[in-house]
Write a structure and sequence with these properties.
Organism: Haloquadratum walsbyi (strain DSM 16790 / HBSQ001)
Membrane topology: Multi-pass membrane protein
Shape: globular
Radius of gyration: 16 Å
Subcellular location: Cell membrane
Number of strands: 0
Number of domains: 1
Main location: membrane
Distance between the termini: 7 Å
Order of helices and strands: HHHHHHHHH
InterPro entries: DedA_domain, VTT_dom
Structural class: mainly alpha
Length: 172
């Protein structure tokens, strides 16, 4: 499989060393919090679970998925609360918030049209993952409902990534 070794080479060396240490799960937890809060700019989120499995081994799939779901859900919840309390203008003024207003408006429309139940679907898909977090915060959605729907979508996404990675290794 050619893709995964290239991904490991593109990861910062300090991160690879940390993920190979006894602190791997704590490091992964922090990485997934950043990923959930949409602050993961040095590596695409789709590569974190497969890269983790490559480093930690196939037998670590359940703990990796558990850490992924917990961390990403916490990260999304933090972003949700920032949207809820800070509002649109607050987020758009922040340099770390890299969503363009036009893209945010599109996802606002999705949330208005489909309601809260679009959150797990968007969390389970490539390229829309986490994008409904901010509109949900703007809409002042219930915290418990947001956390539940966010986690459901994340479970589906991370299990699909792990399954594809494990299946690809068996097919080669």
């Amino acid at each position: 499989m050619l893709v995964f070794p290239l991904q490991l080479e593109s990861m910062p060396p300090q991160l690879v060393a940390l993920l190979e240490s006894e602190w791997a799960y704590i490091a992964l937890f922090g990485i997934f919090i950043l990923e959930g809060a949409m602050l993961m700019y040095f590596m695409p989120s789709e590569f974190i679970v497969p890269g983790s499995l490559l480093l930690l081994g196939d037998d670590a799939v359940i703990p990796i998925i558990g850490v992924a779901v917990a961390g990403a859900t916490i990260g999304q919840y933090v972003l949700f609360k920032l949207a809820q309390h800070g509002g649109r203008e607050y987020l758009l003024q922040k340099s770390w918030f890299r969503i363009k207003p036009s893209k945010l408006e599109r996802f606002d429309g999705w949330f208005e049209r489909w309601g809260p139940f679009i959150i797990p679907l968007s969390n389970a898909l490539l390229f829309t993952r986490g994008m409904l977090t901010v509109p949900a915060g703007f809409a002042e959605m219930n915290d418990r409902q947001f956390i539940t729907l966010s986690a459901i979508g994340t479970v589906v996404f991370e299990c699909a990534l792990a399954g594809l990675f494990l299946l690809s290794g068996r097919l080669l």
